Amino acid sequence: MTLKTHIKPKTLSSAFKRILVLLSFIIFSCGVKPNGELVIAEQGSFAAGGTVKKSPGSFDPVEHGAFNPGNQSTAGQTIHGDHATVFYQKPVNARELPLIFWHGFGQSMRTWQTTPDGREGFQSIFLRKRFPVYLIDQPRRGLAGRSTEPTTISASTDDQLWFGIFRLGMGTEFYEDVQFSKDPEALDQFFRQMTPDTGPLDIEVNIDAVSALFDKIGPGVLVTHSHSGGQGWLTALENENIKAIASYEPGSNFVFPEGEVPEPMPYLGGELSARGVPMSEFERLTEIPIIIYFGDYIPEEETQNPGKEQWRVALAMARKWTDVVNEHGGDVTLVPLPEIGMKGNTHFPMSDLNNQEVADHLFEWLQDKGLD
């Protein structure tokens, strides 16, 4: 017996319309249009934290109110500075927990934006995954350049130094099979991401500002890079709104319980030391899931390549720290990317050619920890 189903044209049209409406709803709820355009529900910027400094004396709006560069009276006037500047975007149908991205040394929020070779960075990648994103310029850096303390900004010719330390290569030669684009324009853009401190680098000032950000926005996942890695642990000790940390190549300020701090680890050109805190404080780091990533070109043994050497000890210290946190009941996952098949990554895996794959690994971890 053959069963034949007949649908009238009018009924088919009505059903088709309902399907289109449903598909439109699904697409809109995902925050991405069929042509790939992101749908942003809300965006903006603001300052977080900071201080106000006042000069002695009284301000006279007549006597002191004229702009006179180099000979301006500061009597009785204030300066608002030492805050973080934050740019945020929330996609349509956003997930509950936002990702808060904090840059490393000499960098700004550009670390997480468009890659030097023009592809989408973590900002857009995770917006497409429906996460609200917050990008930080830490105090006295980038868009948060208003400092309450003076400094001298040098104009050092040091591009090749950072080329090596960031493990793109050595001198001016890229490493073989490196994941960073070898297009000269991409390298030019990368060098132009560097930005100076406009005041003395003060870790406590940075921690206070980022903690103020979490006070303002509530619970979220902190994503750090390099120099902000250690500052991230310290901020988590102060603020319980940090529900997890993902750290890309943390290089300093590893926090251990007092009495369990490892000996300083020497390397070619320096020494890496850890911090000790009371166990009552340290236990906070055992209460949240943490994942740490390191890229490629990091040797296990001493080398005469200074750009690789400091990351050798950073990875070694990260291994020690991971073991100690987990021994005290924590949940730290350490991921050297070459060990999971991702080879050629630099100190900036969020900018490398395989940054989508790197981001996907973080997304899977967030899902596994119930942070999505």
Description:
The chain has 372 residues and is an alpha/beta fold. It has one domain: 3-Layer(aba) Sandwich (Rossmann fold), CATH 3.40.50. It contains nine helices and 16 strands. The strands form five sheets. It has an eight-stranded mixed beta sheet with strand order 1-4-6-5-9-10-15-16, sandwiched between helices. A two-stranded antiparallel ribbon has the order 2-3. A two-stranded antiparallel sheet has the order 7-8. It starts with 8 loop residues before the first helix and ends with a helix.
Note the overall shape: globular
Question: Taking Cα atoms only, what radius of gyration do you get, to the nearest Å?
Answer: 24 Å
Strands side by side in the biggest sheet: 1-4-6-5-9-10-15-16
What is the CATH third-level topology name?
Answer: Rossmann fold
How many beta-strand segments?
Answer: 16
The helix/strand class is alpha/beta
Assembly context of the chains: single chain
Low-confidence stretches: 1-12, 19-28
